[in-house]
Here is the input.
Amino acid sequence: MGFSSIVLLGFLILGLLGARVVECDIVYQAINCRKHSAVLTDFGAKGDGVTSNTAAFRNATAQLSKFGSDGGAILIVPPGKWLTGSFNLTSNFTLFLQKGAVILGSQDISEYPLIEPLKSYGRGRDAPGGRYISLVFGTNLTDVVITGENGTIDGQGAFWWDKFRAKELNFTRPYLIEIMYSNQVQISNLTLLNSPSWVVHPVYSSDVIIQGLTIKSPVDSPNTDGIDPDSCTNMKIEDCFIVSGDDCIAVKSGWDEYGITVGMPTKHLIIRRLSCISPDSAVIALGSEMSGGIQDLRAEEITAYNSESGVRIKSAPGRGGYVKDIYMRRMTFITMKYVFWMTGAYGSHPDEGYNPKALPEVKNINFSDIIAENVTMTADLSGIKGDPYTGICVSDAIINLSPNPKKVQWNCTDVSGITSNVGRPPCDLLHDKSIESGCDFPNDVLPIDEVQLQTCKLASQQISH
Here is the structure.
């Protein structure tokens, strides 16, 4: 039986034979192409921005999951405004948003079931207890792709932000996209708007590729981190533009005793060609939930405007874990409060059960080739008494100050390391030393950089019913 016959038979069996025709060929890049295809309207969806399509999305992914062992399936979301509550993805599956397609997050709380808190957090991030499931969610998956022709997922987060500020929520807000316990994950070529909280949250996952995302939230929206790699291994983030009410990228691995117990670090992470605007937070933050450890982060070609800090490391007694082998280079920052900011006093805790003697290890932190303009303060670096941050290296940095800079440009306590060619006199704890090649940056290739995306094509007649 040929491809078209299989697809047609599937829809006849399901009683879903429709008349929707996708007018043009679809060509896209993905970790894997799919043998079977369907259009959201085949499941009764209406793209009027008013009708709830939650049942249609859930039915579509459930039915298409049956093709997982036979070449997988792609669900095409055509142009229109598709209102929906939370829905789950499946393995060997692609969710594809065509140009002009907008998935709108429902503002009916009943369409977001409650799920357990993350094991490495012990509670919800907003409140004790569980959390509302994310708008687009998946767990225990292999080979899942969320991509498109720059289609949009809009979480309509103002509804949630208002309730959060008014303390009307008893559980943690949903994220826009969350993928858990999964491998071979791709999220690419989308516009993501107005998430209720964190926007993209891969957690306990491996082999993750995030590319070509435009992420926008109002700069005063609460906790709208752009991308949060959390206890993930072998991951890269490339060519993304983020405007955020919180950190543009926040690297995490669990919270205090819960993160220590789970013990899943974030490691082998690449960040390239990131553009960020975050007036009240960091371009790249490490922590503060880093109790499972963060190791081998490689960031380069980073550009930021009007942001609070370029790079921020956040930890505290009780976190445990480690932040080590961090490499960042070729960064351009325009209008910044701080270029470098490290603190060992970021003291929020999930509960009273944490061990204050669980001290984090922070070492081998490298920054090179930096240009920063209109800067208020170059560096505020504060480790923990008796637990200093060590092996800090800053080289080849041009820092030009704002018209009203702070009098003290380098504030350093409980840290040690070196600087080379930083233009302005560093603090005594980071002694000036000539380094011919600058601070370290690895030359080896990580496995995620060796993944080759396939060119996938669906002709219009293949997805016409």
